[in-house]
Amino acid sequence: MRRIWQRDFWQRGDEDHVSAGEAAAAAARPHRPVAEADRHAAAFFDVDNTMMRGASIYYFARGLAARKLFTLRDLATFALGQAAFRVRGTENAEHISTAREAALAFVAGQKVSDIVRLSEEIYDEVMADRIWSGTRSLALQHLDAGQQVWLVTATPVEVARTIAHRLGLTGALGTVAETEAGVYTGRLVGNLLHGNAKAEAIRALAQREGLDLSRCSAYSDSVNDLPMLSAVGHPHAVNPDPALRAHAKELGWPVHDFRTGRKVTMVALPAAAGMGALAGGVAAGIALRNHYRSS
User: Fold this and answer.
1) What are the helix (H) ranges across 108-224?
2) Which single residue of 12, 56, 158, 188 has CA 20 to 30 Å from 62?
3) Could you tell me the residue range of the domain that residue 279 belongs to?
4) Which residues are catalytic?
């Protein structure tokens, strides 16, 4: 029964996710020179609770709140919503669709340069201290071996690129919003980069970069990333949720747990990555809209 469930989980919704993966791969551009020593191998890292403690988009919202672009009440509401989805560990298609449309409506008309500038400032202020040193060390080992290292996340690609750049990684694959002349149109290119879309993204990137996925590695904390983990020859569980821990144990995958004490309780809950990215998109959109209305 478990393997049947896994097959259905990996394959459902493929038509919705293929364009998201292709869009993410097409938007991926290296921040550092591509490795020469081992050009056919790469490592792919999830971000939230894998590379970073907690949700990157939540910290982005916190940074907006500190700039008074986002109210503390809005931040509290966002945090409660995050907690609810983490406890449920499920993503409701209707909720995803509604939140996606709201986020895109809010961000429409905003400048890409504003999001990039804010993401750089907020990473340095709020996110940098929340990087798991153990996970970063794993990433650096791949870089030292001459391999590319990419972040793969549902977080907007502008934020994901900032994280990758600050960590000295090759680049990032993230959710891509359509832009024209440096301004968001209010539409996505493809869909959210989560679930099956992450696997599609790394396949598309592998084809472009000449990578052999059987020689590649992937790291994640969530059972929702089984499609990506199963697409490579060397999957790893990092700070895993219970379902992923059990799966990794059954298949003999390496498990890396950098949490201690209270942190295990806090971050081991199943994460709804798609909903987190959407809620964060709404947060950013509201903040920027309010900023421009008051300026």
Assistant:
1) 112-122, 133-144, 157-167, 196-209
2) 188
3) 2-294
4) 46, 48
Residue 111 region, left (φ>0) first, then alpha (ψ -120 to 50), else beta?
beta
Give the C-alpha separation, 111 to 184, whole Å: 6
Residue 223's domain is classified under what CATH number? 3.40.50.1000
Rounded to whole angstroms, the Cα distance separating 212 from 189 reads: 26
Does residue 44 contact residue 218 with C-beta atoms inside 8 Å? yes
What's the N-to-C CA distance of the chain in angstroms? 58
Residue holding tokens 């020593």? 37
Q: What is the number of structural domains in the chain?
A: 1
CA–CA–CA angle 260, 265, 267 (5° rounding) = 90
Gyration radius from the chain CA atoms:
18
pLDDT in tens, 259-279: 975 444 444 333 444 444 544
Question: Which pair of structure tokens corresponds to residue 82?
Answer: 């995050």
Q: Which amino acid, 270?
A: P
Name 30's Cβ contacts closer than 8 Å, sequence gap at least 6: 148, 170, 171
State phi, psi for 34 to the nearest 5 degrees: -65, 135
Determine the Cα–Cα distance for residues 83 and 78; give it in Å rounded to an integer: 9
